[in-house]
Amino acid sequence: MITNPTRQRTLRGHKPARPNPRAANTAEHQAVLVSRLTPRDKWIARMLWEHKVLTTHQITALAFPSFRSGRMRLRELYTWGVVDRFQPFVTVGTAPMHYVLAPAGAAVLAAEDGTDVKSMGYRHDRVFGFAHSLRLAHTVGVNEWFTALVDRARHSRPGEQVTLAAWWSETRCARHFGDLVKPDGYGRWNDGDQQVEWFLEYDFGTEVLTKLAGKLTGYAALAQATGITTPLLLWLPTSRREATARRLLAHAWRELDEPRSVPVATAAAELLNPGIAHPSPADDVWLPLDTSAGGPRRRTLTELPGAWPHVPPPDPHNGEADLGPDSPHPTAPPPPPMPPTPPVRGAGRPERR
Length: 353
Description:
Layout: E1 11-15, H1 27-36, H2 39-51, E2 54-55, H3 56-63, H4 67-79, E3 83-90, E4 98-101, H5 103-112, H6 124-128, H7 136-154, E5 162-168, H8 170-177, E6 185-191, E7 194-202, H9 209-214, H10 216-226, E8 232-236, H11 239-254, E9 264-268, E10 287-288
Parallel strand pairs: 7-8, 8-9
Antiparallel strand pairs: 1-3, 2-4, 3-4, 5-6, 6-7, 9-10
Helix pairs in contact: 2-5, 3-4, 3-7
């Protein structure tokens, strides 16, 4: 859960998988998958390729009406070789199954994009090797952060028009902005006619806070180079660590040549209410670093632009447009964060639940 993420230090390798019969990744099998895979299945494959690893709980929260239906479909996708999985061993309790893109799934995506698996940069050993990465817990934590927003949007109240319109992975952000900054993600939230975009710095309580505060100079340089003012959101595990970070951030922020070019807000995971149905970063947990506008009060994600009246609304096309071959960072566009809408029954082949 976003209110209680798994720490890297609690991971102790991964459990050996039970032997299960799986389809061989042949041309004939890939042809069969054309009729078996739904738009949601392909979307899941693209999300795994974009964000490296997603847990069972995250995938079901992103795309399924219930945990049971999600688990059953993921078992089928695993059997067909579309996704692969591993289960980290933790010292207390049981970790959820973690999913990555498998060779047959990569072949499906490559065929849809008119390329081949080699050209898209897929290698199964590297993808599955992420099970041993020292950044596994951090990546899962960042993905849980964004998943909570999608889950909140999917369970919005009648009349609400909320959606996570953009979600860029750390890898994609590094391709675009890596010369200056390497945020843990980029996102854009739409709530009716209100929009807010941001870069995310996700702190797990292990990074030196002075180093975290020092990143503000990179974001200021990015704002100067692009002419775009993008808010920076910092997510910390506890209120105590947030208070310490805010003191260091405030000092570094005041030292910038143009502090207003880097709007900053902080929040702590322990401020979320685990008793509600869908706690998420959209809740009233955000405290702007500069509290001169509106006073020192916690705001929802939608209310944050009110603290920065000088920041223009985000470009609605950010996070959607593909980069052409002449771009210094050519890459396929990210998948939409919200899952595809299942077709209405009776209007063609129904979406499998």
